[in-house]
Design goal:
The chain has two domains: 337 residues, TolB, C-terminal domain (Neuraminidase, 6 Propeller); 262 residues, Rossmann fold (3-Layer(aba) Sandwich), CATH 3.40.50. The chain is 15% helix and 37% strand. The protein has eleven helices and 37 strands. InterPro entries: 6-blade_b-propeller_TolB-like (IPR011042), AB_hydrolase_fold (IPR029058), Peptidase_S9_cat (IPR001375).
């Protein structure tokens, strides 16, 4: 396999396809953080685009659009990280990258114009308005803090200004490793409120005098798995630990009157991917209550009013939004769909008015669009589809929900993309999601790497959600704990068998891929069955022993394997692909990011080594500046093209 793949037909095709979908050169193809107010004419959001070529990477800028629709308007030229609308809808808080490395800026905007700005040392990861609108809180990551796997899983670095030969230093000590809370009144300099050894992962005002936070006593990325709920005095910074969960926490939001703190409790595998129970804490009584949201794993929480919580979540194949009324102790769905979803990583929406919500909608065959939902109806405010996107997508098949039965009788769900006008059995690519506690959704094909191009070439694509996935309740997600690579493996194999039995798939032409947990599984699956003709693990784990000792999140494998990394044998040996891959001769393409600290590059090297020792063809592709799951550009395009080439060479193409 050539190092420079850009002249290959597969790379040319991949670049042309993604150019049609993403339109590099300034088109806004995606959005996040859509927000608005019932009394404001405009909605604001962060728009994603390629300002230049793919090689220059994705840009995030501030935009607005009239709530009733119309052209979108760009408001700034800085890389923009966060936005948050004030309670009265009149002022927008904006966090953007500053001109100096390692220094962000916090800003306020009104009527589309910058009002005030101040520097903040570090990376602003969250902003929130006090209920009275007089002050902001900021969650700021130090310049040396690690990023979560979904954000690249690497350590932030600021330029040293020294010669290139100077060593990289890793240490467990340093003030630049911590995440802290800052406050700003919109006029003077922002003030740091909290100090190490408190590390704040998420925070929200709880009334005007208190802050609810998810925090830990250490800065390491792995410390998040043992984080707790705390209340912090907004003047003194005094911290009171109020709840230590059995599992993990996310989406903490204090009520405007300070009477409650809403949050999500769940067993989790990744910071930022929290889906589970909607819970509330009462600061006066200290009571924790889990609220009944029938069948919905909650992923996003906002307060609509002091007694009404707006939530978004997953239920099987559906994305669901609704409200929980504390006064009447009941949940009401306002919108649900299996034809559409929202949110980049988990479903997210923002309440507006008495019952509506805003979100960035999408589906496999529908490009992202700004949406307002009310009374069960979704209204498109503005489409972000590129001019050539629809024509390009027409060739890439259709996604449909799929369900099958596991060997133990459990129903398992997922999604299937069938090629257009498929007649008879086709080759199959099994794409396993990350996590394992996550889920494939009916998301836009631009998020599917090589899958849509393969579908246009006559392949069926299978996106399984085996046990451990979200959207099926706590017991289903928890079933992977202590058995990762066990029953979930056979869930996936049973899904492949079901597709073969339907006559959709040729049993001789099945391949597996995936990133992170999906990388582990695509290395592991061929060692457990002879179903697979090729494997393409991306950012995999090959050896759980060495993974534990080199990753930024060693707590993850201890939780999911439910075993000791210091013991001989056990799950750390029996569930390590690199100890079994040499026994099965399967052509294997392994890819990884060189700066990935979630699954360090050594894991890919171990998988490649074992594949080579099996006697099978194997290639190892390492992108030196890419992070976890190789999502940066142009690496994403290059990885997609190499998948096409590998499958074309080692899995007989459709006749």
């Amino acid at each position: 396999m050539d190092r420079d793949f850009r002249a290959s037909p597969d790379f040319v095709d991949t670049r042309a396809f993604y150019s049609a979908l993403l339109a590099p050169g300034g088109h806004v193809y995606g959005a996040r953080m859509l927000c608005g107010h019932e009394n404001a004419a405009y909605l604001h959001f962060l728009g994603l685009s390629f300002e230049g070529a793919f090689e220059e990477g994705v840009s995030s800028r501030l935009y607005r659009v009239l709530r009733e629709g119309g052209p979108i308007q760009r408001l700034n030229d800085q890389e923009t990280r966060q936005i948050r609308l004030s309670p009265d809808g009149q002022t927008l808080a904006v966090a953007s990258a500053g001109d100096e490395a390692g220094v962000d800026r916090i800003e306020t905007w009104s009527d589309g114009r910058l009002v005030a700005t101040q520097p903040v040392p570090g990376r602003i990861e969250q902003i929130d308005w006090a209920p009275d609108g007089t002050k902001l809180l900021l969650v700021v990551a130090g310049t040396g803090a690690d990023l979560a796997g979904i954000h690249g899983g690497y350590t932030q670095k600021s330029g040293s200004g020294g010669p290139a030969w100077l060593p990289e230093i890793r240490s467990d000590e340093g003030s630049d490793l911590w995440r802290t809370i800052w406050t700003w009144d919109g006029e003077g300099l922002p003030q740091r409120l909290t100090q190490q050894p408190l590390n704040v992962w998420e925070a929200s005002w709880c009334g005007n005098g208190s802050i609810a936070a998810i925090a830990s006593d250490h800065h390491s990325e792995g410390a998040w798995y043992k984080a707790y709920l705390s209340l912090i005095d907004a003047v003194s910074g005094t911290v009171m630990k109020v709840f230590q969960p059995a599992d993990q926490l996310g989406s903490v939001r204090g009520s405007p009157d300070g009477a409650y703190v809403a949050f999500v409790q769940a067993i989790c595998s990744d910071r930022g991917l929290v889906a589970g129970f909607l819970s509330i804490f009462n600061p006066k009584t200290g009571a924790i209550e889990t609220l009944d949201t029938p069948g919905i794993d909650i992923t996003s929480v906002e307060w609509r009013s002091p007694m009404v919580i707006h939530f978004t979540g997953e239920r099987g194949h559906e994305t669901v939004a609704g409200d929980y009324d504390l006064e009447h102790s009941g949940a009401t769905e306002s919108w649900s769909s299996s034809d559409l979803t929202n949110g980049e990583w988990v479903p997210v929406s923002y309440p507006i008015g008495d019952s509506g919500c805003l979100f960035v909608g999408e589906s496999y065959a529908r490009a992202p669009f700004l949406a307002e939902a009310a009374s069960g109806t979704v209204r498109e405010v503005a489409s972000l589809a590129a001019p050539a996107a629809q024509e390009a997508m027409l060739r890439c098949g259709a996604m449909e929900p799929f369900a099958w039965t596991a060997p133990d009788g459990l129903e398992v769900q997922g999604w299937v993309v069938r090629p257009k006008n498929a007649a008879g059995p086709t080759p199959l690519l099994v794409d396993v999601h990350g996590g394992p506690i996550s889920a494939h959704r009916n998301s836009w094909m631009a998020r599917k790497r090589s899958a849509p191009i393969l579908a246009s070439r006559g392949w069926t694509i299978f996106f399984p959600n085996p046990r451990g996935s979200t959207g099926r309740g706590d017991a289903f997600a928890r079933a992977v704990k202590g058995d990762m690579g066990g029953a979930d493996t056979f869930d996936i194999i049973a899904g492949v068998d079901a597709l073969i039995a339907k006559g959709w798939v040729d049993a001789r032409r099945v391949a597996a891929t995936g990133t992170s947990y999906g990388g582990f599984m695509s290395a592991w699956l061929p060692s457990q069955t002879d179903r697979f003709a090729a494997a393409i693990p991306i950012s995999p784990v090959g050896n759980w022993y060495s993974q534990h000792r080199t990753t930024q999140i060693p707590e993850f494998d201890e939780i999911m394997l439910d075993a000791s990394p210091w013991a001989e044998g056990g799950a750390y040996f029996t569930r390590s692909p690199a100890f079994y891959m040499q026994k099965t001769k399967v052509p294997t393409l392994v890819m990884a990011g060189g700066i990935d600290r979630s699954t360090p590059v050594g894991q890919a090297e171990e998988c490649h080594f074992a594949a080579v020792r099996s006697g099978a063809p194997s290639s190892l592709v390492i992108y030196p500046k890419a992070g976890h799951s190789v999502r940066s550009y142009p690496e994403y395009l290059d990885s997609a093209a190499r998948i096409l080439w590998w499958l074309g060479k080692y899995v007989q193409p459709a006749e």
